[in-house]
Amino acid sequence: MLVFVLLFGFAVIAVVQPFCSPFGINQPQWELEVWVYEERALDGNDTELDVGVLVSGQAGSTIHDVRLAFEDSDGQVYRTVEVGTLSGLANETRTVRLDRRPSVVRVETGPIEKGNDDAEYWIKGVQQANGEYEQFIQEHQEC
Hints:
- The chain is mainly beta.
- The protein has one domain: Immunoglobulin-like (Sandwich).
- The protein has strands spanning 2-8, 11-17, 29-41, 47-57, 62-71, 77-87, 90-98, 104-108, 112-113, 120-129, 132-141.
- The strands form two sheets. Strands 3, 4, 5, 6, 7, 8, 9, 10 and 11 form a nine-stranded mixed β-sheet that branches.
């Protein structure tokens, strides 16, 4: 919360303004996102991915129990990989060998300790589109 004190003559008026500005000015924001940095085809249908998990923006949050979930084209999770706890700005990479190319890689989280309850945030995964992985928004918490 941001408190403005306005003086009018002898009267004091306190105006309480949340950090969330209707214009997005000085609005705290952060993102938790997945990226596929590199993909290598192996024998048969096997594939190996270098997957990054990043926290960017004005983080100030601690995100517990972060996991990568690999889904097939039917939306079934067939593999999860633990990333751990991410705090502040973070960049973790995991090399994962899979028995097939995933259609979706999403990030799953446990409890989120928000550094600022008013912060707007996005959680983004990746999905196959035209042979490449493109980001999509899994969750968006508005300010």
